[in-house]
Input
Amino acid sequence: MKQFILFITLVSLCFGGDKIANLLQSQIQQLPPELQQQISKKPLSWKNIPGKSFNRSMMDPSDILGEWEHEDEDATVWMTVGTDQSIMNFMQLNGLEPAEGGVDVTGTASGTMDYMVAQAQSYYGYDISIVVLSNNPMDTESDYDYYYDDEIPEDIELPYFIFMHMSFMGYGGTSFMIADTVDGEMMGYEYEIEDAADYISIDTTSMRVDISALTVANDAGDSTYTISGTIVPGTMDLVADTPFEMPILADDFGPDPGDDETMTWQFFEDGTGLEIWSGIEEDYYYGYYEYSDTSEIEWSATDDSITLIFMYYDDYYGYEESDTISLAYEVTDDMLSLSAEFDFCEMMGDDYYYYYYYYDSLNCYDMFEMQFGITDIQDITLDFWVEMSYSGPLAIAGEIGLQPGQFKLHQAYPNPFNPTTALKYEMGSAGPVSINVFDVNGRKIRSLYNGIQIPGQHEVRWDAKDDRGRSMSSGVYLFNVNVGGKTQTAKTLLLK
Output
């Protein structure tokens, strides 16, 4: 499957499938830092969206102060061409709508695979062919989630088939997967297929896929399937000077927290703020764990737009980045709506990676022509909005008697202690915080916190253990607290 990912373009997948996009991004992260920066987003600018009206009487920059939690979002990519033309139906070609024809599956279970993802081309003299077929729409909530997470989505057609074939430079493979209920229990099976290329042909012009009587069976021989048929995407007509929607690109653009993930924006009175992503991740080795990813924000607002500067830090490569975005906003009761219209190609930039090779001669419109066969492109725009609900006020620096940039450290309590003690501190503004425990000889015992925190009162606890979980002996220990580059120390006594 990873080979399959290598040959789908960045433009078509970045916003259409989380699993594939994440794997693609992981490959990009292996590139040198200077090349990674080439594909970073450019600053975005806000423009009034035609037909979108705001009640200015209800907008005041002070209404933005506080904490807002993501509720909903939407994005639509629109394209306008200068001439009438007919192209391949990319919705069918990318598995989001049924294509024409279908590949039948007969045997132990039966059905028709009428959804397809297919590419075929010549690359440096080598033929590349990629085919993914299913009897269900191939979006993030169906096939890819099943393949990677072994989870069968609800409300799908059963039995559930996925056929995957890839060939490139002598590498690749073919597999057939099925999910069905057996004795009332959902079961999934995968069959690796040898010599499948002898039964499959792909027309590089029409993207017609033919499969002739390919038979697969499990090792026991009690489950056999025959796969055969023809499937081809239809065409769609584009009318000159009339915007048409590109839903394949807008499907997953922008913030999209899942069931186990939340996004929160926090706006402070001093013009700073935080964007916080938090949720639950599953790791192969460590199981489920909680995580939080925080970006600093600088913000300013007028009566009709808010400008946000997001600041990112890369600890591994040691560089800092920032993105600037301006959005129209509306505050109604406890809801904050942010919206904009972007020039899609300006946002993406003019330099692209294609098949993991960098071409500075390819621009945004070239990519669309290569991926979708669309020519004479006049305009590509993205309509975008996010809705946030108010979740409560936040401490402002003046309310805790501290100026921005100041912090106050209290003594640990109880002191002496056994087995735990608490350390409280106050911050006048948002910033990076690190809290470590040392012994009287200056040896680091425990890291209690390292991250970014909001203004207000905070507390950490120490259970008298080191970073390895070993209990410490009686004695004096030092809390070293660094807030925004300023350090204070508090002593505590452990008695056993």
